[in-house]
Amino acid sequence: ALLAQINAATSLHVSLCGESLTWNGATYPSVNTSPSISQTMDEGGFREVVSMQSVVRRFDMPAAPVIGARVTAEGRSWRVANVGSDAVAWDFTLDSPTQ
């Protein structure tokens, strides 16, 4: 019963956001953060890293892309940097594909 309530609340949140994530030709409703820019130390100095988070309900997306896969969100291409999950949703960390 509790899982059904959480799933219903997540579904409402996703539908209100009106965002999406596209992978392998299929588009899934999602909740995306705004892209952020940070700096990380690399050979020769600092480099900028552009990243964002995207959450997709497991009900909508039964299998998740693997780390390194290319997806589209917010009108641009991203590389999946990390995949987390719970009983209801996938939580993706997405990086600019050039990183």
What are the key terms here?
1 helix
Q: Report the radius of gyration as a whole number of Å.
A: 15 Å
Quickly give the structural class. Answer: alpha+beta
- Count of DSSP E strands? 7
Q: State the order of secondary-structure elements, H for helix, E for strand.
A: HEEEEEEE
Task: Draw up the topology in text.
Blueprint: H1 2-17, E1 19-23, E2 26-32, E3 36-42, E4 45-57, E5 70-73, E6 76-85, E7 89-95
Notes on the structure:
- By secondary structure, this protein is α+β, with helices and mostly antiparallel strands.
- The protein contains one helix and seven strands, in the order αβββββββ.
- A six-stranded antiparallel beta barrel has the order 1-2-4-7-6-5.
- A hairpin with a 2-residue loop joins β1 (about 20-25) and β2 (about 25-30).
- The longest helix is centred in the N-terminal third of the chain and has 16 residues, at about 1-15.
- The mean pLDDT is about 85.
Compact description:
With 99 residues, the protein is of the alpha+beta class.
